[in-house]
Amino acid sequence: MSTVIVTVPATTANLGPGFDCVGAALTLNNHFKFTPTEGEGKITVTGMEAAKVSTDKGNLLYQALERFYQYLGKTPPPVAIDIELGVPLARGLGSSATAIVGGLVGANYLAGSPLKLSDIMELAIAFEGHPDNVVPALLGNCQLCVGEPGNWQICEIPWHKNLIPVVAIPDFELSTEAARSVLPSAVSRRDAIFNVAHLGLLLQGLTTGRGDWLERAMEDKLHQPYRKSLIPGYDSVKAAAINAGAYGMVISGAGPTLLAIVNAESAAAVVLAMTDAWQREGVKVEVRSLTLNTEGAKIEVY
Q1: For residue 9, is the peptide bond before it cis, meaning its omega torsion is within 30 degrees of 0?
Q2: What is the gyration radius of the CA atoms in the chain, in angstroms?
């Protein structure tokens, strides 16, 4: 059987008020190569954070592959897996979602493609536990996910061509578990209404490119007020981004990466401002101006 390479994009989830239901694919990628082998397969990892990734059967990508074959009621075939990292780990850019999607898509090819894309999506959501990262990682673009297991409604949100996502990736990690641990178990009706209204405005702002709408829409009351305490320099970086021309700034996923949405004319200034602000807080950071990934998970066969 041929070797297959699955390329899966990074994602940014929540986008402020879209907690656990909105995510967008970005132009950062992980690459996963699957090569059928006669003997016992092995996992190799390359990239800046390769030493942090397991190379045994506890590897998340391999766990997703195993989960796929369990779903089919079959035993996984021996396969050599090569992982090339391009998405930073534990930074709020969906690195685990890339592994889950990559493992399922790669397994589906190895098994002769028995499952449809919608079936793979259901498996990915069940494995991850929520849809906002795995769905855009699989499908690309910006996606709104509504529903429950077995009954998901996925709605692609048009992203205006003039809107540029700028990500500020610090050199420290923040686990999803830690970020969820600071959230309250209940919220007030007032805060729930606030988020419903702001999510509606966010979707319209993304679609139309209306900066005045996005300036209001990227605020939320469900997670960012609690999580920002885990991110040193959050307020300084946000002020710098907005002063440089960003429409707004949010925590990407569970953090600590921060995402600003800007127009093309302001992108370079926002990159410099966010870099300088975090460095003045004593945090090393990489700030990048990206675009929306429109392809999702992509397969190349050799």
Answers
A1: no
A2: 19
In angstroms, the CA 283 to CA 203 distance is: 32
Which residues make Cβ contacts (< 8 Å) with residue 167, sequence separation at least 6? 12, 26, 93, 252, 257, 258, 259, 287, 288, 290
CB 100 within 8 A of CB 60: yes
Chain mean pLDDT for the chain = 96
Give every CB contact of residue 212 below 8 A, 6+ residues apart in sequence. Answer: none
> What amino acid occupies position 238?
K
pLDDT digits (tens, 9 = 90+) for 94-138: 999 999 999 999 999 999 999 999 999 999 999 999 999 999 999
244 secondary structure, DSSP code: T
Could you give all domains of the chain from N- to C-terminal order, each with its CATH number?
4-157+292-301 (3.30.230.10), 163-289 (3.30.70.890)
Q: How far apart are CA 249 and CA 274, in angstroms?
A: 10
Binding-site positions = 88-98
Look up residue 236 and give its two tokens.
Answer: 């300084």
Binding-site residues for ATP, in ranges, read 88-98
Burial (CB count <10 Å: 0-12, 13-18, 19+), residue 129: exposed
Segments in 111-183 forming alpha helices (H):
117-128, 134-139, 176-181
Sequence-distant (6+) residues with CB within 8 A of 57 are: 63, 66
Q: Which two tokens stand for residue 238?
A: 């946000």
User: What is the C-alpha separation between 139 and 177, in angstroms, rounded?
Assistant: 25
